[in-house]
Specification:
Largest sheet: 13 strands, mixed
CATH architecture of the largest domain: Sandwich
Helix content: 25-40%
Number of strands: 18
Structural class: alpha+beta
Order of helices and strands: HHHHHEEEEEEEEEEEEEEHEEHEE
Strand content: 25-35%
Keywords: Membrane, Transmembrane, Transmembrane helix
Protein name: FecR family protein
InterPro entries: FecR, FecR_C, Ferrdict_sens_TM
Distance between the termini: 92 Å
CATH topology of the largest domain: Jelly Rolls
Shape: elongated
């Protein structure tokens, strides 16, 4: 009777239908090395045959495996806790198989959910917009950028969105549903905070600056996630995509999202990089002639300035060695010069 009862519990467990007491009884039975036979192989084989896809070896499945090990070991006195050698007993191998296959099997038993539609917004040069996501998070999307997000977020699941370009986020706090921004190989993970991401694919740089809360930055290469840094208010991470390295520095809180209010702050920034940013936000095209200005770097802040005023200020900062010409009809600004002082 006990064997039949345990078999029934095992089948119910694979179907996700056991209650807390039944699950406790099953785990205690399987944790006992004396029960390490092949009683349940037929049940497992039957369960595997019902699967039409490969087992799920994702981090979620591995987490499930860890949870099962913890449940098995929790009911045992220290003298009977599972040692590595006992993990190869037949009954334990069965549970490992159940853990790795469980999440896939479980999905096949659940009602099919309606597909989640994805929405996207692309801004043009000189354009910036304010968006509200399904969870009431606010996004300020910068010029020449693209944001993609699901039509709704599932409670308790990750809030995944994708960004190409620049955006400032004010994320609604939800400890059970981490908010993750995917930008190329980079991932930014938060629970609820405000931060700015700069991730234009062609620029070769990725940066995150934090205004409030904590932000985790990771690199995702070939499915392997590597955590780089945890940022707090006033910190900025700059990642160089080509070199594969990064630095973390301090940033004035007021400058994190200054561009929203038409204020642009540059710190020891090359002329080429400055012009690239200004090009997007002022909807102009720069033509930089020659290589004499490549080494020029500037510290500057421009607030509510016209592009002509900005160019004049840069000319003065260069010791008047940089020259420029503005074609207002075609929105082309030609830049040349002898270098910087």
């Amino acid at each position: 009777m006990k064997q039949d009862y345990i078999k029934t519990l095992f089948e119910l467990y694979l179907e996700g239908k056991t209650d807390a007491e039944q699950e406790k009884n099953l785990m205690e039975y399987l944790a006992d090395p004396a029960n390490g036979d092949s009683e349940f192989h037929a049940i497992m084989e039957k369960a595997w045959k019902k699967q039409n896809i490969l087992p799920d070896y994702s981090p979620e499945a591995n987490k499930g495996l860890d949870e099962i090990w913890n449940k098995i070991e929790a009911g045992q006195p220290k003298s009977k806790r599972l040692y590595p050698v006992l993990k190869y007993a037949a009954a334990i191998v069965v549970i490992i198989s159940a853990a790795l296959g469980w999440y896939t099997y479980k999905k096949t038993q659940q009602p099919v959910e309606l597909a989640i539609a994805f929405l996207s917004k692309t801004t043009q040069k000189g354009e910036k917009v304010k968006l509200m996501l399904p969870d009431s998070s606010i996004v300020y999307l910068g010029a020449g950028s693209k944001l993609t997000w699901p039509s709704h977020f599932v409670k308790g699941k990750l809030r995944n969105i994708r960004l190409e370009g620049e955006a400032f986020f004010e994320v609604k706090h939800d400890i059970k549903s981490p908010f993750i921004v995917h930008s190329g190989h980079m991932q930014t993970r938060v629970l609820g905070t405000s931060f700015n991401i700069y991730a234009y694919p062609k620029d070769g740089t990725f940066s995150v600056a934090v205004r409030t809360g904590k932000v985790g930055i990771s690199e995702n290469r070939e499915g392997k996630l590597k955590q780089l840094s945890l940022l707090t208010p006033g910190m900025k991470l700059l990642y160089r995509l080509k070199e594969g390295n990064y630095t973390v520095r301090t940033e004035r809180i007021a400058e994190v999202n200054a561009w929203i209010k038409n204020s642009f702050a540059f710190k020891h920034t090359s002329l080429a990089a400055m012009l690239k940013s200004l090009e997007r936000y002022y909807n102009v095209h720069f033509e930089l002639k020659g290589n004499n200005l490549n080494q020029c770097r500037f510290n500057a802040t421009f607030t509510n300035k016209s592009i002509s005023d900005i160019m004049e200020e840069i000319r003065v900062m260069s010791g008047k060695k940089m020259k420029y010409k503005i074609d207002t009809v075609n929105k082309i600004i030609t830049v040349w010069g002898e270098g910087c002082q």
